[in-house]
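User: Design a sequence. Structure:
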């Protein structure tokens, strides 16, 4: 079986590499010539744990090749997998520009029966749209070549994409005929040796499943973020509430962290696309509206906490805030819709200076954050802390878990720490010397901690 992956981004490259690792011959195609040149030269354009070794190994053994040529790649493919971008249009719905272009190019070069697999996240009805687009291109060539279109949405997570693809929780296949279904079964067989996790269904349900999964996960996050504000008002601790409800088997612990809001290339745009789909079907989108609104609000929260703190500390203008973590989540260099961008924009607008560090996302972040005298790029955590009035943790990279806080504090001018991911123990941070402010938990101030310890010691001694 010859596999052609069309679109060699986060999903396309991981998918191509993993199929090649299983022994298939895979061609990854992209219209971005620079990207393909890099890949042909062995340079991996994205950061994804474990990916580089697989790409290098499979490229060396010639099971994985890269091209920009539809003319060469389409005729020899048994399956063509669409993994192109499906961004949000200005009005919120899914933009099918890249899908349309890729489907037309397939139609222009198709020679034999081929199964077209849609891996991109697309609204219900897109498989039919792809079928029509290819048919139109074939009609233009005045040829009739059989093909099938299958929906096979992808559920990998950036940061653990290789592991997710190699050991998927499930593989969803939306298919309307037995020939294509048999081929899909064979295609995924190497991934199903220990357990069958292929779920066949109709095409519309497969397309909908992807949006439903992302919307469910995003809803859990917005639910906790919404509750976190109430926790702050009432004295409850959102991390305790998470433990309390997550231990219920019906609920579970995943995706229940309150924080600085979700970002990334999928949740924001997929929620907007789902909202558009609901509205264009004259249905009530208020649940999804609320999830989106709560998240937009939450992305402002860390800035508001910093601003409010500095109201009592001489104002924010001219202050220096060190930011730890820029990517939208750990273990990726993806900056799309990252919460850090909202925080940095607000800080710069209010006259603050920022010192920025991320273990891998700085090259991508530099493309989005304009050079300015207010912005300093740093090599590590210590450099971020130099002269800073405050630190803000935005992305919970593992290397930040055991930072030498005392050493950072010594580098700083101020002593406040804003934790956008609730990574640290408030008491420990206050004891270390920080004014520690997190999400959905009571702030822990260094001065108050000392006062409390003094009272505790003296009252106990008196007793
Ligand atoms: N990134 C994720 O974590 C993730 C997870 C699951 C599903 N998805 C979905 O998978 C799809 C791809 O996402 P991504 O993050 O890999 O996108 P991406 O932007 O990283 O990559 C898309 C690639 O497609 C290429 N492309 C665009 N038009 C093309 C064309 N006509 N022919 C060939 N190549 C073309 C682009 O140059 C780019 O390299 C999207 O629909 C996304 O929603 C993404």
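Assistant: Done.
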């Amino acid at each position: 079986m010859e596999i052609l992956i069309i679109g060699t981004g986060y999903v396309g490259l991981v998918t191509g590499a993993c199929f090649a690792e299983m022994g298939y011959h895979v061609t990854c195609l992209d219209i971005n010539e620079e990207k393909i040149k890099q890949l042909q030269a062995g340079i991996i354009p994205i950061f994804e744990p474990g990916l580089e070794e697989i790409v290098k190994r499979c490229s060396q053994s010639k099971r994985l090749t890269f091209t920009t040529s539809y003319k060469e790649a389409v005729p020899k493919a048994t399956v063509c997998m669409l993994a192109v971008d499906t961004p949000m249009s200005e009005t919120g719905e899914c933009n099918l520009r890249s899908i349309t272009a890729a489907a037309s190019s397939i139609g222009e070069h198709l020679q034999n029966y081929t199964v077209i697999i849609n891996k991109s996240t697309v609204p219900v009805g897109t498989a039919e749209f792809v079928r029509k687009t290819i048919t139109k291109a074939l009609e233009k060539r005045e040829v009739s070549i059989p093909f099938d279109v299958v929906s096979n949405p992808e559920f990998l997570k950036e940061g653990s994409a290789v592991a997710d693809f190699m050991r998927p929780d499930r593989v969803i296949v939306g298919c309307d005929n037995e020939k294509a279904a048999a081929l899909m079964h064979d295609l995924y067989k190497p991934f199903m040796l220990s357990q069958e996790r292929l779920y066949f269904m109709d095409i519309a349900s497969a397309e909908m499943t992807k949006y439903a999964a992302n919307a469910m996960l995003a809803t859990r996050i917005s639910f906790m973020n919404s509750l976190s504000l109430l926790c702050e008002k009432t004295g409850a601790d959102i991390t305790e509430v998470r433990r309390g409800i997550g231990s219920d088997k019906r609920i579970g612990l995943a995706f229940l962290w309150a924080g600085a809001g979700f970002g990334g290339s999928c949740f924001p745009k997929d929620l907007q696309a789902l909202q558009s789909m609901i509205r264009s079907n004259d249905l009530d989108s208020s649940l999804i509206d609320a999830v989106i609104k709560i998240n937009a609000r939450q992305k402002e929260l860390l800035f508001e906490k910093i601003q409010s703190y500095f109201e009592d500390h001489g104002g924010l203008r001219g202050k220096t805030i060190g930011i730890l973590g820029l990517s939208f989540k750990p273990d990726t260099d993806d900056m799309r819709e990252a919460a850090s961008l909202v925080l940095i924009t607000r800080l710069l607008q209010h006259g603050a200076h920022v010192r920025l560090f991320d273990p891998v996302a700085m090259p991508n972040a530099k493309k989005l954050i304009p050079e300015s005298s207010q912005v300093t790029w740093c090599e590590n955590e210590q450099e971020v802390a130099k002269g800073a009035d405050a630190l803000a943790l935005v992305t919970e990279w593992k290397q930040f878990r055991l930072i030498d806080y005392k050493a950072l504090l010594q580098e700083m001018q101020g002593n406040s720490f804003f934790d956008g991911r609730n990574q640290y123990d408030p008491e420990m941070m206050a004891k270390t010397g920080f004014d520690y402010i997190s999400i959905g938990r009571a702030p822990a101030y260094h001065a108050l901690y000392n006062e409390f310890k003094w009272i505790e010691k003296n009252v106990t001694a008196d007793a």
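The chain has a mean pLDDT of 96. Residues 6-12, 29-32, 35, 83-86, 98, 101-102, 120-121, 154, 156, 158, 265-266 surround nicotinamide-adenine-dinucleotide (CB under 6 Å).
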